[in-house]
Every structure is written in C-alpha cells, then in structure tokens.
Amino acid sequence: TTEIYTLSLHDALPIYLSIMSRETLEEMPDRLERARVAGTKIRVLTWDPAVGRKVVEAFRKHLGEHEDKTSGAYDQVCRASTAWRRLAGDFPSVITEVRQYDSAPTMQGLIVEGEWALIELMPFHMKPNERPALYLAASIDTGMFTVFDSAFNSLFKSSKPLVNSEDKSGG
C-alpha cells in the first residue's frame, strides 16, 4: 500500500514501482497523466494472482490487513493485475513494462534508476502508516542503494510479463 507522492520527478529516467492498494490505483490515471506530460517512464511489478488465494490470505494475515474482509486481499491482487494491464494500455508512453511476480513480497517501494529509492518494509502485523521505510540516495547511500536496486532488477528479470510490447501495440 505504498503511496506515490509524484511521478514527475526526473524526465526520461525509469521509475520502478509496485502498487496494489485500491486507493492508490484509483489515483493512478491522474498521476500517470502528470508523468506523461513530464516525460517520465515507469516499469511496474505486481503480484501474480496465480499464486492463489491461500498464499495471498497468508500474507494478509502476516500484515494484519483487512481483518474484517478475508477475501478482500486476493480480490485486490486480481484487481491490481487487471488495473495495471488497463493502465499500460491507457498510458503506453509512460508505462514501459508491467510484469508479475509469484514470490511473497517483504518490501515494496519506488526506485528512480540511478537516483534514489523509497523502500517500505513489511514486517509482521504492522499497519501501513506504522511500517518502517528507507530513503536511499544513490549518491550518498551507494552500497545500500545498489543492494535494493540489484534485488529489484533481479526480481523484475525473473518475473513474467503481464503486458508486453505486442499487447501495447495492438498486435
């Protein structure tokens, strides 16, 4: 449930993000339009619904989210997958690639390639506004930035495309 404060930060630098919250997805068209105007490009990772309801439910319990709506978390994973596919079609000049991963997330965040990262950790039973986060500047926190950037790129490369160039070009 990471929030994005702006997507128009660096022209032409890829931004990597992983967003699943319903509220944030509802706000994405406005944010992506600002990113389009600024010339910002992003790559997206989202959780693959094929991991199954039991896996998502176990993760929901780990986070302590949606205690009153046990089916809500899996439904949201499905909605996020569908939403990113649609958003990639609506904003092809901004969203360069959408991929799905099937491992359990332990963090989520935003990485501006070669610039900075905001990483939200997802420890046991902490509400989104209580979770610790790390801000890493590539020029100051070189070692840590490299660790997270490398881990994210490894996850990205090992994930499967949700939207590929043929999907976006209509072929």
Q: Describe it for me?
A:
This protein is of the alpha/beta class and about 170 residues long. It is about 40% helix and about 25% strand. The protein contains 5 helices and 7 strands; from the N terminus they run E-H-E-H-H-E-E-E-E-H-E-H. A 7-stranded mixed sheet has the order 6-5-4-1-2-3-7, sandwiched between helices. Helix 1 links the parallel strand 1 (about 15) and strand 2. Helix 1 packs parallel to helix 3 (about 70-90). The radius of gyration is 16 Å and the shape is globular. The N and C termini lie far apart (about 35 Å). About 30% of the residues are buried.
Topology:
Elements (H helix, E strand, L loop, with lengths): L13 E4 L4 H17 L2 E7 L5 H11 L8 H19 L4 E7 L5 E6 L3 E6 L11 E5 L4 H17 L1 E4 L1 H5 L2
Parallel strand pairs: 1-2, 2-3
Antiparallel strand pairs: 1-4, 3-7, 4-5, 5-6
Structural descriptors:
7-stranded mixed beta sheet; single chain; alpha/beta; globular; about 170 residues
Task: Tell me the number of helical segments per DSSP (H or I, 4 or more residues long).
Answer: 5
Briefly note the structural class of the backbone.
alpha/beta
Please summarize the sheet with the most strands: 7 strands, mixed
Radius of gyration: 16 Å
- Overall pLDDT level: 77
Could you spell the SSE succession in H and E letters? EHEHHEEEEHEH
Distance between termini? 33 Å
Number of distinct beta strands: 7
Beta-strand fraction estimate = 15-25%
Spatial order of strands in the largest sheet: 6-5-4-1-2-3-7
C-alpha geometry = globular
Low-confidence stretches: 1-13
Helical percentage: 40-55%
